[in-house]
Write a structure and sequence with these properties.
Layout (H helix, E strand, L loop, with lengths): L1 E11 L4 E10 L3 E10 L3 H14 L6 E6 L2 H7 L9 H12 L6 E4 L6 H13 L84
Parallel strand pairs: 1-4, 4-5
Antiparallel strand pairs: 1-2, 2-3
Helix pairs in contact: 1-3
Length: 211
Amino acid sequence: MAYHITCDGAYSRDREVGGWGAVVEESGYGTQKSYGQVQRTTSQRMELAAILAGLNAAKEEQHVTVYSDSQYAINIINGESTAKVNLDLVDAIFARIEEFDNSPVFTWLPRKSTPQAREADRIASLMTTLGIGIMEPSSLGSTDGIDGIDVDTPAEDKEEPTPTKEVEAAPVGTGEPPVGALAMSDVPVEEDVEEIVVKSSPRKRRRSSKK
């Protein structure tokens, strides 16, 4: 048994809303989708949030392959570059990796290069068009897959230079949430969030640049 997880994040500068989507395929059991949205964030945080949500949807005893079109995220996770910001999400991803029996494999793929990548892109983009809080977690009966992590931009963080992904989405108020989604959470804005202590991973070598 194995999981193939395709992730994507998006951010609309006009609406100041970010969204993430993860298409989670479990061999023999079909596909499920995880998604969410947040204000005052960055495209990089949305890429990382999508990966974390995808990992949280997988079972630890299974083999997992994660696909993302974010070279920023993949390079950090694979130890090819060092994270300078977004350390809460990066540490949470490494901590989650430690919980798997077999270390997940992280692979970069070009944007929209597979049906799953196109669907993840569509979900993330759609999340930037919906009003924050348009759906409550209780209405779907589950979580967005990143409990305990505030994906708003920490005040001290500034996004590392990277090309901004343009959002291709329908006008506000159109379209329906993806069928079969695990959940879309109304992630609290910064003033409503209590202080969160993020578990750090012991595998610090993953965050170090290769010599």
